[in-house]
Design a protein that fits this description.
heterodimer, A: 292 residues, mainly alpha, 2 domains, 14 helices, 72% helix, B: 324 residues, MetI-like fold
């Protein structure tokens, strides 16, 4: 009777006490247990961020903060100049999003909907760079920016995105543009529209969901990025949030509750963005897996 | 008017003119076609420039630096293959970091793939609350790496961390986790399975693509769940498995933030990951030449492994014909 488990008919869900139903109960139970396990580190984070120093070092540990040390948050945000780092992160994240949208939508349009010599070969070469380990270009790129005098500025963090170096976004938009009906372009061209007008007035407005995905993913990427700021930014007053938090680890390792409060503040914006855009997230991931 | 009926003279004049019309069309294209190519090139220029300036040139530059003794300041002296010789014969930490990285990759890739596959199979059942479970399983992978390293650093804390308190409750003596040379890599593997969200979603999409008729046919033949997994699900999933294998292998080989934030490569170089070793050489010891040689070694190792996986893939990856 294990035949039930993959049966797609609606009727069998009404059948009780068959192995298929038991199996589904087991799956549900496992999902609940695994959900608890997956959430546990975040619960541990939240609990630790709200504890007084005295309580956090009690063994065996307690789960409920007593009292709730809400002051850890303002304390953490003032111990590290968090709002300065937040502003710095914004100075990187916003131009990164705009630059990624600019360079990848233009390139994706050229690769998806225009005919030009060596188009597919050039696209294949660009795609091959996705397999390149980042360390191979990290050192020479650092030396180039250093030679140009841009170390300790945000230029090396931003400019690459204006030049479409994350080919994944070009790929994502190209997939989307290719799926739009070709007749739209052709009709517009016959009516005398210019290629630039087709791109701006037809293709871009129809691609809002895909552009949103690219904006979210590139924005989160810049917010989370740790290695590039670590390599390029030296002055502490220019640190981004991620880099600032890493410095906090070294300096205040014993002050776990402050560290946990700071980590929570770094995570919260990401979780909020994720909750509002979950649908797009999942779609973009499956696109990489199935069509890549 | 056919060629055979026309006199030679006519044929001669007609043929060249016919040819010149077609070649002429290629040489002077219609204005619309020319404008299309021009605008395509303008649109693709930022991306092509990015490839040339920030990928192709740095790669060549890196190859050159790897054969010098450059320290980022002063002059670079050509040393040929000395850096590679030093790496292979005079740098025990090269072998140490390679061993640590290979060990981590060899364990974390299969373990996290199996876990992601298991989660995807659960989410492919018809049970209530699927959307909520999917979200919960996925959330850990969106936590910024810097924050997750901080959280796990605290959970691994031998005295006040979560894990030892759970073990203590059931009477197991305290473990040292990332503070022990033997346990540091297994601990980081354990941490890595927390972030299998994207892999799980890719597996789930793959599972949902498996044609239902295959299971129905198997049911008629009286197959049990295990048979269906081994003879239907796994073969149909091999392209997805190959994709996840490649991505996670390349990512595992480039592990950097965990050793940087949590262990500083220790204890006793037990978590001296390869990229962390490159970072130290380049940005702490300013040995740009040697670090570039190390980066090339990593590039070669990853390329060879990817090639081998691809070469063997035609033996175990099953592609459905005519579907894509």
């Amino acid at each position: 009777m294990s035949a039930m488990e993959n049966d797609t008919s609606i009727g069998d869900s009404l059948v009780r006490n068959t192995p298929g139903v038991n199996k589904r109960r087991l799956a549900f139970l496992l999902c609940v247990l695994l959900s608890i396990a997956m959430i546990l580190p975040l619960a541990w984070l939240a609990r630790s961020s709200l504890m007084e120093m005295g309580q956090i070092f009690i063994f065996p540990p307690e789960w409920i903060p007593n009292p709730f040390a809400w002051h850890n948050y303002p304390d953490a945000l003032t111990t590290i100049p968090f709002f300065l780092y937040l502003w710095n992160s914004a100075l990187v994240v916003v131009p990164t999003i705009v630059g990624t949208l600019f360079s990848s939508s233009l390139a994706a349009y050229a690769f998806a909907r225009l005919n030009w010599p060596f188009r597919d070969q050039i696209f294949a070469v660009l795609m091959a760079t996705l397999m390149l380990p980042y360390v191979i270009t990290l050192i020479p790129t650092f030396l180039i920016w250093s030679g140009l005098g841009f170390v300790d500025t945000y230029v090396p963090l931003i400019v690459p995105h204006w030049l479409g170096t994350n080919v994944f976004y070009i790929f994502l938009l190209r997939q989307f543009f290719k799926a739009l009906p070709k007749e739209l372009d052709e009709a517009a061209i016959i009516d005398g529209a210019h290629i630039v007008q087709v791109f701006w007035y037809i293709v871009l407005p129809l691609s809002r969901p895909a552009l949103l995905v690219v904006a979210i993913l590139s924005g989160l990427g810049a917010w989370n990025d740790f290695v590039d700021p670590l390599v390029y930014i030296n002055s502490s007053e220019k640190y981004t949030v991620a880099l600032g938090l890493s410095q906090f680890v070294g300096l205040y390792t014993s002050q776990w509750s402050l560290l946990m409060a700071a980590a929570t503040v770094v995570i919260i914006p990401v979780i909020i963005v994720f909750f509002f855009t979950q649908r797009y997230f999942m779609t973009s991931i499956t696109m990489t897996g199935l069509k890549g | 008017m056919t060629n055979s009926s026309s006199p030679d003279g006519v044929m001669l004049t007609e043929r060249p003119s016919g040819r010149s019309v077609t070649t002429g069309a290629r040489a002077r294209m219609s204005p619309r076609r020319r404008s299309e190519i021009t605008w395509a090139l303008i649109f693709a220029t930022p991306a092509i420039l990015g490839f040339v300036l920030l990928k192709a040139m740095p790669i060549l530059f890196s190859l050159y630096i790897s054969m010098t003794d450059w320290s980022a300041v002063g002059d670079a002296h050509w040393v040929g293959l000395d850096n590679f010789e030093k790496m292979l014969f005079a740098d025990p930490l090269f072998w140490r970091s390679l061993q640590v990285t290979a060990y981590y990759t060899l364990v974390s890739v299969p373990v996290s793939m199996a876990f992601a596959f298991f989660l995807a199979t659960l989410l492919n059942q018809r049970i209530p609350g699927l959307g909520i479970f999917r979200t919960i399983f996925y959330i850990p992978s969106i936590v910024p790496i810097i924050a997750s390293t901080v959280i796990w650093l605290w959970m691994f804390n031998p005295d006040f961390g979560l894990f030892n308190s759970v073990l203590g409750a059931v009477g197991i003596p305290k473990l040292q986790y990332i503070f022990s040379e033997d346990q540091v890599v297994p601990s980081l593997v354990f941490m890595s399975i927390w972030g299998v969200g994207p892999m799980m979603i890719i597996f789930l999409a793959g599972l949902q693509e498996v044609p239902k008729e295959l299971y129905e046919a198997a049911d008629i033949d009286g197959s049990n769940a295990w048979h269906k997994l081994v003879h239907i699900t796994l073969p149909m999933m091999t392209p997805t498995i190959l994709f996840n294998l490649m991505i996670s292998m390349v990512a595992a080989f480039q592990t950097f933030v965990q050793p940087f934030i949590m262990t500083n490569g220790g204890p006793n170089n037990g978590s001296l990951f390869f990229v962390f070793w490159i970072y130290r050489k380049a940005f702490q010891d300013s040995q740009m030449g040697y670090a570039s040689a190390l980066a090339w070694a990593l590039f070669i190792i990853i390329s060879v492994l990817s090639y081998l996986i691809f070469r063997t893939s035609n033996k175990w990856v099953f592609y459905r014909g005519g579907d894509d």
